[in-house]
Amino acid sequence: MKQAEIDRERARPVPPRQLFVDGDWTPALSAAVLDVISPIDGSRLTSIADAGPADVDRAVAAARRAFEHGGWSRMAPAGRKRVLLRLADLIEAHALELAVLGVRDNGTEIGMAYKAEPLSAAGTFRWYAEAVDKVYGEIAPTAADVLGLVHREPLGVVAAIVPWNFPMMIGAWKIAPALAAGNAVVVKPPEGASLTLLRLAELAAEAGLPEGVLNVVTGRGAVAGEALGLHMDVDAIAFTGSGAVGRRLLDYAARSNLKRVHLELGGKSPNIVFDDVADIARAAQVSASGIFRNSGQVCVAGSRLLVQSGVHDRFVEALLAATAKLRVGDPLDLASGIGAISSAEQLAKNLDHVAAAEAEGAERLTGGNRLLEESGGFYMAPTVFDRVRPEMRLSREEVFGPVLAITAFDTEEEAVRLANGTDYGLAAAVWTADLSRAHRMVRAVRAGVVHVNTYGGTDITVPLGGFRQSGFGRDKSLHAFDGYSDLKTAWIAL
Ligand code: NAD
């Protein structure tokens, strides 16, 4: 990736975008639009359609028609595979365009965005495309006078509701397995980052996905999202976002048609460093990146550093040195290590957490302030607080910003107690040179993923999801694929 190529993409005007319904572009019936503000400089980038309930009805009806028609849902698996592989190739062919468009929309640093958004989405489509014709049904071990067959069938119409931090990557985690399984899909992108998913739908049509199989309704969560949640003809919702909205979706399902709800929610993930950590400098550098990459706007961010007392001072010193090297700046400048905060509201929320931590007596070691205000964009310094007690807000509430809370501990039991001492259970890490301790910690920590001697780093082959209030259901891997089909038994008397 060259700076000149990025600059060329960045200079392209972005035309106002409409809804993508039944294979065509259409404005919201009310003609309402929402401004898209770029977090890079606070300027108005373009507009998106602001869908209302009637638009959601149109999209769901188109998806239902496409599903019932069978052109996709009953297509031979090898045919679905071909289309999804073509889509993966198209995403890759447009990777730079998609990455820059996404960065202009949500502010993620381009190096990360390029890999985590188009390239990862292409990989996800490819992986599920390859799975389509390799997952079999079952023959049950019944008595000799019957034949028990277990078929897998698509659910029908699946709605995917996606957050703004990695809309393509997370969108693909839901759209790819849902389509591969034969469903029709309605996507509700986040209002703060809709542009790449709209482009994805266009590429899917180019790849040969039949009309109505993938629809995109942009707009406000409380309106378009709610309409999907309450819809009587949506069979399942796959959601990634906040716990507050996750609760609403369960309520909508209960009040409507008991649609299935898969929830991937937030976290307050512990990154646990023991005295016997093998390489302090490396662990500190990976830990800094584990919280500060994408300005902490990562669901699995290691936002609580639990560090054993014997190594506390040396580790914190190394961590501050690693943090000082992180360069916050224009996310489309290849020299920047960290980009913008996605919106003015999110920046204000982060600064509020900083003020609360200070008021509660935590010790600010670095950061805590807005940066580059003169750019008009939304930037924040990587922020580290020490002496954060478990009862403080900073230990309990997800910031979803570049704010790290450090708490010291003495024993392994205390580390486990602290690690499990929140309502969440999304991710964790353990740094130790003691293999037995590493395995004990993997068992003891309540989280969907426990990293050992690293932080983050994962791929499509393993499931991602939460324990406790970090949600249920899993993205990625064949476990996620299972979530987009129903089992049907055929019981045949012989
Ligand atoms: P959010 O919950 O505010 O919004 C997520 C999506 O829900 C958006 O598309 C939004 O428009 C929609 N929405 C909002 N109100 C709605 C309603 N009433 N009904 C239906 N839909 C509605 O979350 P966000 O701010 O976009 O994302 C940040 C959150 O997402 C954080 O909590 C983060 O931890 C979580 N997250 C989790 C994962 C994971 O894999 N577990 C990954 C990324 C982000």
- The structural class is alpha/beta
CATH class of the largest domain: Alpha Beta
| Count of alpha and pi helical runs | 16
Associated small molecules? nicotinamide-adenine-dinucleotide
Order the strands across the largest sheet as they lie in space: 14-17-18-13-12-19-20
- Our estimate of the beta-strand percent is 15-25%
Terminus-to-terminus distance: 63 Å
State the CATH superfamily name of the largest domain: Aldehyde Dehydrogenase, Chain A, domain 1
Which outline best applies? globular
Give the rounded overall mean pLDDT: 97
Low-confidence stretches: none
- Proper CATH architecture of the largest domain: 3-Layer(aba) Sandwich
**Rg computed from alpha carbons, rounded to a whole number of angstroms:** 23 Å
Q: Into how many domains do the coordinates divide?
A: 2
Overall helicity:
40-55%
Strand runs, count = 22
CATH third-level topology of the largest domain: Aldehyde Dehydrogenase, Chain A, domain 1
Family: Belongs to the aldehyde dehydrogenase family.
Domain Aldehyde dehydrogenase: 25-489
Active site: 264
InterPro entries: Ald_DH/histidinol_DH (IPR016161), Ald_DH_C (IPR016163), Ald_DH_CS_CYS (IPR016160), Ald_DH_CS_GLU (IPR029510), Ald_DH_N (IPR016162), Aldehyde_DH_dom (IPR015590)
